[in-house]
Write a structure and sequence with these properties.
Elements: H1 8-13, H2 15-24, H3 29-38, H4 40-59, E1 64-68, E2 72-78, E3 82-90, H5 100-108, E4 115-123, H6 128-137, E5 141-143, H7 146-155
Antiparallel strand pairs: 1-2, 1-5, 2-3, 3-4
Helix pairs in contact: 3-4
Length: about 160
C-alpha cells in the first residue's frame, strides 16, 4: 500500500465507486462476500488497492494545503514542479490561531512585530503525490487556497 487505507466512513461514502472497482476486477457482490469470509487477506488487498487509487486521484488534484496550529500557520501551494510555502509564526504565546478569537487577532495585527513571516520553495522528491500525502498525514487540510492567495498578495 502506497498511501493509507480509507476509513470506514470514506468507504461508505465511496460505496458505488468501490462496487464499480470490483466490477472492473470481475468480482460480483456474492464473490465479494465470499472473499471477505474465506480469503480475508485477499479482500484486504482489494481494499488497499482501491484506497491507493482514490488517493492517487485526490492527490493529483490538490493545489492548496493549510496546516494551522496554535502559534503557526503553514500555507502550501502545490505547483507542478515545486511546493511554495508561506508560514506565519506568532511570538505571542497567549494567542491561539485555531480559535476565532486568535484568528481575529491575526487579522487586526498582521503587520505587528509579534508575527514572523517566512516564504520558501521546495522541489518535489521523486514522488510528488507522496510529498503531498505526507503534508496531509502531518495534519494538513486540502483547501481552495484563499488564505494562501491572501498572504501571497501581502508579501509579494
Amino acid at each position: 500500500m502506497k498511501y493509507a487505507r480509507l476509513s470506514k466512513e470514506q468507504f461508505e461514502e465511496l460505496h458505488q465507486e468501490f462496487i464499480n472497482f470490483l466490477a472492473t476486477q470481475s468480482v460480483t457482490a456474492d464473490e465479494w462476500v465470499n472473499l471477505k469470509v474465506n480469503k480475508p487477506e485477499l479482500a484486504e488487498q482489494e481494499l488497499d488497492v482501491f484506497s491507493d487509487l482514490i488517493w492517487e486521484g485526490v492527490l493529483g488534484k490538490v493545489k492548496y494545503i493549510e496546516h494551522i496550529s496554535a502559534q503557526q500557520l503553514y500555507l502550501f501551494y502545490c505547483e507542478e514542479k515545486r511546493i511554495r510555502l508561506i508560514a506565519l509564526k506568532l511570538k505571542k504565546e497567549d494567542i491561539d490561531l485555531t480559535t476565532p478569537k486568535g484568528f481575529q487577532w491575526l487579522r487586526e495585527n498582521l503587520l505587528s512585530d509579534d508575527i514572523e513571516f517566512f516564504n520558501a520553495n521546495k522541489e518535489y522528491s521523486k514522488d510528488k503525490h507522496q510529498d503531498i500525502f505526507k503534508l496531509i498525514q502531518e495534519g494538513g487540510n486540502i483547501t481552495k487556497g484563499e488564505l494562501f492567495q491572501y498572504f501571497d498578495k501581502i508579501i509579494n
